[in-house]
Amino acid sequence: MNQLLLTLGALTLGGSAAILLLAWMGRSTRGRYGARWRCWGWLLLCLRLAVPLPLIFRGEAQAPIRVDIPSPPPAVQPITPSGSDPGDLSPVQPVQPVQPVQPVQPVQPVQPVQPQPEKSSFRPSLPLILLGVWLSGAAVVLAWNLIAHLRFLSWLRRWSSPVKDWDAVDAFNHLGDQLELHRRPRLLACQGLKVPMLAGTVRPAILLPQGKITGEELAFSLLHELTHFRRGDIWLKTLALWVNALYWFNPLMWLMVRLVERDTELACDEDALRLLSPQDYSGYGQTILTAVARLQSRKENTHEE
User: Fold this and answer.
1) What does pTM read for this prediction?
2) How far apart are CA 38 and CA 26, in angstroms?
């Protein structure tokens, strides 16, 4: 128990230093080290923090084995009567006959003493209390994320349907071939959705708003989401949420989730732009800015309500 708490403390201190370092790199070395490299850093950090166990398992130091060698018995000296010469061999006196031993009276059996029940005096120690608080907090954060995910899946099953626009399907298949995706997500249209998005880890799907985006905006949006799928960014975000649940007591872990979200978006844009010509950079950037503006307006409307 103590070892687990010490490991948690060491990991959260080391993880905090790594988070601050990656956050500083995102501000000061953005041109030299792109978001893709920071995503690799986030992945390695989350993998290390995902299992709070010591890096090297060291067993307790074994005490040296002591072997006790018995000392030889002392030499037995012959017993000689006091006041006599050892060389004097006088005749031995006859031994008196031994008196018969009187029979021993049988001893009455002793009644066993009934043990008195001891009063329970359990008092939880400080490490046990800290462990309980940590587990309770982690369970609450995990339950919150799980409930939110289940509600989203329920909403998705109710309001989503396969895309019937053949132009969108053709653009989806063309971009999938261009990205060399042998396994592709589902393409669904969802009511009430403001911007396209990639959702799902086990059964991923690209969700499109119904009848709101067409033409070049649709192509750039599909390119962005398919690039997310090819990069596996949704797995990195899920891993970051798991780490955040384990280290919920550290405010920097909550900041890490936001930084992972930011860097995965930037890295996705970097990879997508490599597939486009310089003439398409402006259109792609305008599509992303429009999607961000729609999300901001939705958040503001939600807060006002």
Assistant:
1) 0.75
2) 8
Domain boundaries, the chain: 134-250+280-305
Of 44, 104, 112, 298, the closest CA to residue 194 belongs to 298
Tokens at 47, concatenated:
């993998």
Higher-confidence residue of 103 and 241: namely 241
Q: Are 108 and 223 in contact (CB under 8 A)?
A: no
- Give SS3 for 205: strand
What are the residues whose beta carbons fall under 8 Å from the beta carbon of 173, sequence distance 6 or more?
A: none
- State which H helix or E strand residue 206 sits in: strand 205-209
Question: 142: closest CA among 252, 242, 258, 238?
Answer: 242
Mean pLDDT score of the chain: 82
In the block, tokens 């950090």 appear at 45
Is residue 185 within 8 A of residue 198, CB to CB? The reply is: yes
Q: Which helix (H) or strand (E) holds 162?
A: strand 160-162
Look at the domain 134-250+280-305 and name its fold. Zincin-like (3.30.2010)
CA dihedral (84, 88, 94, 96) in degrees, to 10, reads 20
Taking the C-alpha atoms of residue 13 and residue 18, their distance in angstroms, rounded to an integer, is 9
